[in-house]
Design a protein that fits this description.
The chain is of the alpha+beta class and about 170 residues long. It contains 2 helices and 10 strands. The protein folds into 2 domains: about 10-130, Immunoglobulin-like, CATH 2.60.40; about 135-170. The radius of gyration is 25 Å and the shape is rod-shaped. Its main location: membrane.
Length: about 170
């Protein structure tokens, strides 16, 4: 588990450092519910022996790795990773497993650079993830709606039958 002592202090860098960043600043990918996806991210040069990378979705940190230490946010536990051996080679791609509809959104990756007692966040990559329902999810939703409608019709029929009986046999 990632442990942090004291509040995180980041200096947001809006300056793109061509020495570290990948060529594309935003890409779009799509995946189906239940599948896996790789949100691409590549560092041209790894500026330290143990790079620290962070991935966010809607300004929430969903994953962070510093060496063997990692943090996975609630809802992402055991579903996200940037393998350490890949990161050491400059591949900071986020592997996302068992995709859910609520995983859809814009993900951003950052390189965390230590400067004394402060850290500097350097933007690397923005990836828009679109999530599509599988045919099975669509059919399941349709059947659930159909079952609810059928149950309502069955109940209405039963009530009408009881009313008729009450009228015929007071």
């Amino acid at each position: 588990m990632f442990s942090v002592t004291g509040p995180k202090m980041y200096l947001q860098s809006n300056v793109f450092s061509p020495a570290f960043l990948s060529a594309d600043s935003q890409i779009s990918i799509s995946a189906r519910v239940g599948s896996s996806a790789v949100l691409p991210c590549q560092l041209r040069n790894v500026p330290t022996e143990t790079p620290q990378v962070e991935w966010q979705n809607n300004a929430e940190t969903v994953f962070e790795r510093f060496g063997q230490d990692l943090h996975q946010a609630d809802g992402y536990t055991d579903r996200v990773d940037v393998p350490e051996h890949n990161l050491l080679k400059g591949n900071c791609s986020l592997e996302l497993k068992n995709i859910r509809l609520d995983d859809e959104g814009v993900y951003e990756s950052y390189l965390i650079l230590k400067e004394g007692d402060r850290s500097k966040r350097v933007f690397i990559q923005r990836v828009k993830l679109s999530v599509e329902e599988t045919d099975q999810e669509f059919v399941k939703g349709f059947l659930e709606d159909d079952i609810a409608t059928q149950q309502a019709l069955d109940l209405t029929g039963i009530i009408a039958f009881i009313l008729i009986l009450c009228i015929l046999f007071p």
